[in-house]
Specification:
19 helices, 0% strand, 460 residues, globular, mainly alpha, 84% helix
Length: 460
């Protein structure tokens, strides 16, 4: 699709068709990403060693932080790109993309090196013990120390490509990494006998190949794309760093607080047993399906909302938000019903260990009940990010992860034990949804026609 085609999709195509064309590929890629993240747990579970499953669970927060970095620069950069293109500022869009790419690559590299140096201190803090420490070291070395840069760039490039309207191509790149990981996991784990290290190597290789796909795609587009690799486009002017970082910060904070939340969760669970850690690890992996749907539904329409907001086409922007809300809420409701009713066989598919399955199915049923709440909160966050708001999405991100669930974990652990720890997650999701409605409804009411929108204040 060329630039004129992108403009037609954002500004002229029927709203329903535009939303579906952007959302469906994004959701599919998110689901495949979740499936390939689950693949490590699934195939390692077939070894029958709860310690290796527990090690993956303990390492996952540190790996998920890479997604936070990708969102910081990818969502912030794609929002600024979409708004710049809607305002006709093509060169600013190029500079925004270049700043996002080069800065994120440098930060990811530093993160990988820092984690390699700090793991003797860090791993015991997150719950690793004598039985899981070596497994954690193997997993972190390949997925983060070696794989941090391609993991971040793979996800970030998908955001930037999607900002130009190429949702299907962005989703294909994400899906490519997922499919490769699913295919390589059993090869490295079983025939080569590498076990948990094999799963980590498969993840690193898959992300590297997916990143290469995006690089080739962008280079082949040449002048028809606004995503620029050349360092001459790297710039700190035009408030680009501020816009990218502040708009992308809420999504990064959500991941960062999610890391802290999972660390607290694993630490508390480790006080009971490794089977409890493995059970919550499986349950959280499965519940990522609901989160993936909500994320895909919201992030898919980000460029459509941002473009029309900057172009002052507020009726079209509002129509896109309405259509996306109805679709995402319905899909999230169906996902919740499925995960609740099929909890036992789903968990058993990962590991056939009676105690782990007992914990896992209980935890999954508790966690999944607020799936529709997540869809509401994520859409509100995305709308605020699309129009350049900074304060509202930051508040909602902190509430959903860290602000509510961590205090409730410790409180409910004291009163209700292991089951109470898990109930903190749905309580936090419901509270974040209420806060999202309180912030979003007034903004929505003030967003009338062009004159009304100018009066409501574009920046926070």
């Amino acid at each position: 699709m060329d630039r004129n085609g992108n403009r037609a999709l954002f500004a002229q195509a029927p709203v329903g068709r535009a939303v579906v064309s952007l959302v469906v590929p994004t959701v599919i890629s998110q689901l495949i990403t979740v499936i390939y993240n689950m693949a490590d747990t699934f195939f390692i579970g077939q070894i029958g060693d709860p310690n290796q499953v527990a090690a993956v669970s303990l390492c996952m927060p540190m790996f998920v932080f890479l997604t936070g970095l990708a969102n910081l620069f990818g969502i912030g950069g794609s929002s600024l790109m979409a708004r710049s293109l809607g305002a006709g500022e093509v060169q600013k869009a190029k500079r925004a993309a270049s700043f996002s790419l080069w800065t994120s690559a440098g930060v990811a590299l530093l993160y990988g090196v820092a984690l390699a140096l700090l793991r003797p201190v860090l791993l015991p803090l997150v719950g690793a013990n004598a039985e899981t420490y070596d497994f954690c070291c193997q997993y972190i070395f390949w997925t983060i120390t070696i794989g941090a840069v391609p993991t971040v760039l793979n996800q970030e490039l998908a955001h930037l490509v999607r900002a130009e309207g190429h949702s299907a191509q962005a989703s294909f790149g994400m899906a490519l990494g997922g499919v490769l990981n699913i295919a390589l996991d059993p090869l490295f784990i079983f025939p080569l006998g590498l076990e948990i290290a094999g799963a980590a190597i498969a993840t690193m290789v898959s992300n590297a190949i997916a990143t290469l796909y995006f690089v080739v795609l962008i280079l082949r587009k040449g002048a028809s794309t606004n995503i620029a690799f050349h360092p001459r486009h790297y710039a700190w002017r035009d408030r680009i760093p501020r816009e990218v970082l502040l708009v992308g910060l809420p999504s990064c904070l959500m991941n960062l607080m999610g890391v802290l939340s999972n660390i607290c969760l694993n630490k508390l669970m480790a006080g009971y047993s490794n089977a409890a850690v493995a059970g919550i690890g499986v349950a959280k992996k499965v519940d990522m399906l609901s989160y993936a749907v909500a994320t895909g539904m919201s992030q898919g329409v980000l460029p459509l909302i941002g473009y029309n907001y900057s172009a002052r086409n507020f009726p079209r922007m509002k129509a896109a938000v309405r259509a996306d809300f109805l679709l995402s809420f319905a899909v999230a409701l169906v996902s919740t019903v499925f995960l609740f009713t099929c909890a036992a066989p789903i968990v058993r598919a990962f590991i056939d260990d009676a105690e782990t399955v007992r914990y896992g199915q209980l935890f999954q049923r508790i966690i999944c009940i607020t799936g529709p709440c997540i869809s509401v909160t994520m859409l509100a966050i995305t709308v605020f990010q699309s129009v350049g708001k900074k304060v509202q999405p930051a508040i909602l991100s902190l509430l959903r992860k860290g602000g509510l669930d961590i205090p409730f974990m410790f409180l409910l652990n004291a009163f209700a034990g292991v089951e109470g720890i898990v109930w903190a997650t749905p309580i936090a999701d419901f509270g974040a949804m209420l806060a999202a409605l309180l912030l979003f409804v007034p903004f929505w009411r003030t967003l009338r026609q062009e004159k009304g929108a100018r009066d409501c204040g574009i920046q926070s």
